[in-house]
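To: structure desk
From: M.T.
Subject: fold request, one chain
Message: Could you run this one when you get a chance? Sequence is below, nothing fancy, just the single chain.
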Amino acid sequence: MNFLNSAILAGLAAALVPLLIHLLNRRQLRTVEFSSVMFLRDLRKTRMRRLQWRRWLLLTIRTLMIALAVLAFARPALKGGLFAALGSRARTTAVLAVDRSASMALETPNGTAYDRAQRKIASMADLWGEGDEAIALPFDIHPPPTLPPTADIAALTKRLAETPVGNAGTDAGAAITAGLAALRQSENLNRELYLFSDFRREGFIHTTIAPPQPGDGNVTIYAVDVSEPGAYDLGVGRVNLENQLIEPLSPFRLSATVSNNTDADVDKLLVSLFIDGRRIAQNTANVGPGASATITFDAAVESPGVHDGFVEISADDNTLNNRRYFAVTVPDRIKVLLAADSPSGRLAAGLALAPDPTAQRRIDVTHATVDDLPGTNLFDFDCVVITDWRSPQRAVVDHLTRYVRAGGGVFAVPSFDADTTSWNMLLAGPYFSRRLGQPPSLPEPDRYFVWEDFDWSHPIWSVYAEVSREKIPELRWYAIFRTEGDDVGRTLVRFSGGRPALQEIHLDAGKLLVLWTPMNAPYTNFPLRSIFVPFMNRLAEYCAADVGERRGDFLVGEPISRELTSALSADAVLEVIAPDGSRLMPGIDRGATQVRITLDGRPDPGVYRVVAGSGGDAAIDAFSVNLDPLETAPAQISREELTRRLEGYNVVFVDGEEPLTAAVNQIRYGTEIRPAFLWAVAALFFLEMLVARTRKREMPLSGDAIGEPVRAAAIAAE
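Reply: Done. Structure tokens follow.
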């Protein structure tokens, strides 16, 4: 048993008062034999013994009443375990782990969840005593390094109150692991970890908590739930540009996902699209409880360059997830490297891309032979087109693969006399799981294949998706390679008969497209048809477009690593301009052919612009940083699942409305049993009245009827 107010125990001395009164009231009388009452002696002895028994019983009851009353005011508590008797005196080391992730900003009538956590911490002031120490551990997706414990818990509480809620996700498992590691360094007997969180399930599935180590049996984990139901929370999820080519003044379609994190229907939610700080479009959405809806917008940019934007919904109880940022890079000029084994092999493609080499065009074409490729810095170009390619070589293929994986685009076409062994071993087999047959035979004008089964959703063809099929010219192929194998990647169009004609695969950030048959006359009429020039231009734009990068972004707190596609000088100084206008110095990894920048995880969402030159403002690249949409998912981890994840640890769950101090005192010192002591005092009081009343009724027989004549005789004898 422990006493939460042990100073009151000094009052137990008052239990001696009834005994002192009893001893002081005893009278010493001299006995004189008197014959007339001598026959009553036996009766007197019997009744006097009964009277003495009741006197001692009253003395015991009154002593117990005072003792139990004092003990009740000393606040007795019961706690099992070997160290129960030391519970009220043991020093404590506590870790205050406070979830500061974005979901803790959810507003309710009682403030945000983060505000409620801070109030809980402030209410713990009465728990700390002399010799106690605490460690502050505010955490999100990356818990900060734990600091040494401090005895100045008031100052620590103030520092926690001044720590703002963040924008990142949650990794509660990592925070618990860090807190337990810090407690293992403490020599105090009582060790406690307080976890203040809204217990979103997503935050507890990233890190597995190791089983307890020797000595962890004295650690108590208090899971303090500060969430409240009934909040109105919606969020914008992923923004998707749908793999489109974006050109100045050309419409493109953008979609965004809106999630309803409440249990009620939301009708006519206003969703807006902003680009370069201007509202471009808006739409409304109806979203069911716990469901998502996709909203589409049609927009356009007026000029080449880097453009930033965001999709925003109307205000709710958590404004942190109401925006989703994105960045779009529209190249000013597209640099194409056009290669072939012979000048005639690249003639048609060259005329389609640059009919007048002296004119200023959006597409700049550089001519080369295939043999020149190993010594060419491909990263000086946005796109590589290889037509009439006879025999792929290992050095050329490896060079192209590095370029593609870094974000480049390559379009390749075999020649009519292609070395199918080299093609199958280095390109067709490894990347497309296909096999080229024998070279095509001489063309026969009366027998031909046509293109059919177009993938109209692909960016190259999407511009023709709404065009009447009768207006698209028939493309004839008089001789083709007969390919066999699996359909790996994406097939953009097929030959009549079902064989793939044009296929695409993605390798990391880049793309590789192959047309499985020659596209020069006399094997096809393709270069002579009106669709050939726009096809080659769309192909170059698609290969040069940063489509893969546009479809993704970085999450708050996530390390940033990004390769730049712009040509840069070897000594170029790079800076990153944050959304608040501050300039950051990124890490720069200059490879032989490319530049990669790195940054630590950023705490603020928005669009970050990369500029070349100290103090420069012209962006050469941009990327977006956003909240993790799963962070605000409403599902909470159940107590059963959390108990399984913390198996072996002593876990105490505390509801948001439950007084934290009372819960901790109950665990530290046991269950307070003062009411039981007060009820015992009341029972003894009624028992004392009953015994005292019975004693008074028997007093004449045992005292007055016998004792007084004897006392009178004794006085007369004197």
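Reply (cont.): The chain has a mean pLDDT of 84. Let me know if you need anything else for the meeting.
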